[in-house]
Amino acid sequence: xxxxxxxxxxxxxxxxxxxxxxxxxxxxxxxxxxxxxxxxxxxxxxxxxxxxxxxxxxxxxxxxxxxxxxxxxxxxxxxxxxxxxxxxxxxxxxxxxxxxxxxxxxxxxxxxxxxxxxxxxxxxxxxxxxxxxxxxxxxxxxxxxxxxxxxxxxxxxxxxxxxxxxxxxxxxxxxxxxxxxxxxxxxxxxxxxxxxxxxxxxxxxxxxxxxxxxxxxxxxxxxxxxxxxxxx
Length: 232
Known about the structure:
Helices cover 74% and strands 0% of the residues. The chain is mostly helical. It has a single domain, classed as Tetracycline Repressor, domain 2, CATH 1.10.357.
């Protein structure tokens, strides 16, 4: 009698069809890393690199310092990871815009609307930028990724400006960097200095009505500059 156990073909086939679940350890690692990044974004946005406390980050993330150093190396590594992730999110969302180079004015106005809306809805990113600029761009200058992710945006603006000039809509000689700095400034300054300006000018700049009017103003300023004739 053959005592060797035969395989059950039905059982083996069913087993092959069952999707393998990620290892619990891997799922826990991803969850812990995400929790650290979320807590670190909040802390760095509020206090900057120098003022941020690792102890506060790990407490908010509900993990220990050993895990933080395991994933990010040190405080600088964590800060750079947060900074790069924030920029990547902005650029990824920019890339989702349905911009048609054949409609240059509409494309640049769409970028203005998006940027205005993004900064308002992502105050932690605004906080990161504010603190990074207080540090004279010390850390963002160390990241090639931040620069590289901006290349598609710059090429898009260049293409829109060239298209606008070719169609006789824009004046020639427009600088793509100047245009984006204008877009960013029109989207950020009322947020960065909103509280002091509200008091100084006796105008509540936090209301939806004022913010809506500000966006209309920003769009008009951008369109006026793009389409203005060259001063003689």
